[in-house]
Amino acid sequence: MTPLNTPTPPAPRFATDLITFYHPDFWELDSANALRDWAFAAPDTFWLRVMDASAEAGITGLELTFAPGDIDSALRAFGSAASFRRELAARGLSVVSAFVAGSDAPDWRQDGDLPAIVADAERRAAFLAEAGAELLVTGLPMRTTFGTRPPFFADAAYMMRMADIAHMVGEAVSRYGVKLAFHTESNSTLWYERDIDLFMALTDPRYVWLCPDSCHIALGGGDPVAVARRHSPRIALAHWKDAVRPIDVELTIDETVFAQQQPYMTELGTGIVDWRGWADAMSGTPGAGIVLVELDEAADPVAALRAGRAVVEVARAGEAAGDRAAHVERQGRA
Fold it and tell me: Taking a C-beta distance cutoff of 8 angstroms, is the pair 57, 306 a contact?
């Protein structure tokens, strides 16, 4: 029997999406609208507190998202992507990605919007390149409320249109050294396992990547680990988030749908996601070097992020121990 000498995988960088910091209680404000208004008026103060809290939680990477933690806010606060990058670096932080929210970008469903869609993505990619990041994360349009007439179908024809747009956008941002990755948002047309498999089959892996969200896949009744394993070569980044249970009712898909989904989400380690299996699947992906812990609107983001990191570390340790045990068993049979 040969001696066991399995190298320990390098520790990943921990990151989070800015939505983690959007709970009004963290800012001693009484509503999300009050937070947006205050942060718009004082973007520098907003960003400095986010940076300090991230560093305190042991987070080194940030994913920008919709306001107030968006690209425009960073530019108002620091004047340029380069200045923003320097402020982050002074605290041991960096931008890893930017998320494109549907309400904050041209509508992919509207015919004739392709030039605007591409131009919007290029603007974001130029910022990311200057800020030192390489990932633009977006999603596919939302479904319509079940029972709406006329009905909307996320069928093959629809997915082919989305794939065509994705190719154009992915090629455009690639010229900036940025990858385009698609997020598996609940109640979107990239939610169910079937949606993900179909869209990935229709898109070119050179230009289209995947950003699976463990929570959202589980909310759709899917198996996040199985999805990650099937598509591991194309996972550029993943959102590590837990779910209470699959969404068991038909939600009204309008501007309130994200709030309707929140009761089904929970902090890492308190829900149904198989974290050891997820960690194992993630370890072999191109995005393995970053663990993005996402916690929608945490009232105490520092404590929540520390707790999430602890769950990840236990899962990764368990996955590594499993690998070593399997290695010993194989050697014993040899």
Answer: yes
Check: CB of residue 97 under 8 Å from CB of residue 64.
Answer: yes
Chain-centroid distance, C-alpha 222:
17
CA distance 124 to 100: 9
Express as a percent the part of the chain with pLDDT over 90: 87
User: Average pLDDT of 209-228?
Assistant: 98
Token pair in block for residue 270: 């308190």
Assigned token pair, 280: 């194992």
DSSP state of 64: E
pTM of the predicted protein model: 0.92
Task: For residue 306, give the nearest of 59, 20, 11, 49 by alpha carbon.
Answer: 59
Which amino acid appears at position 193 of this protein? E
Query: What are the residue ranges of helices labelled H in the chain?
Result: 32-41, 43-57, 71-78, 81-89, 114-131, 156-174, 193-202, 214-219, 224-230, 257-261, 275-282, 301-333
Mean pLDDT, the chain, whole residue set = 92
For every residue of 164-212, DSSP letters joined together read HHHHHHHHHHHTTT-EEEEE--TTBSS-SHHHHHHHHHHS-TTT-EEE-
* Better pLDDT: 213 or 321: 213
Buried b (16+ CB within 10 A) or exposed e, 213-226: bbbbbbbbebebbe
Helix (H, G, I), strand (E, B) or coil at 213: strand
Of the candidates 106, 30, 19, the one whose C-alpha atom is nearest the C-alpha of residue 68 is 19
Q: Element (H or E) spanning 14, and its range?
A: strand 13-17
Rounded Cα distance, 215 and 243, in Å:
5
pLDDT band at 327 (very low <50, low <70, confident <90, very high): very low
Cα–Cα dist 44/100, whole Å:
22
Distance CA 217, CA 219 (A): 5
What digits encode the pLDDT tens for the residues 39-88? 999 999 999 999 999 999 999 999 999 999 999 999 999 999 999 999 99
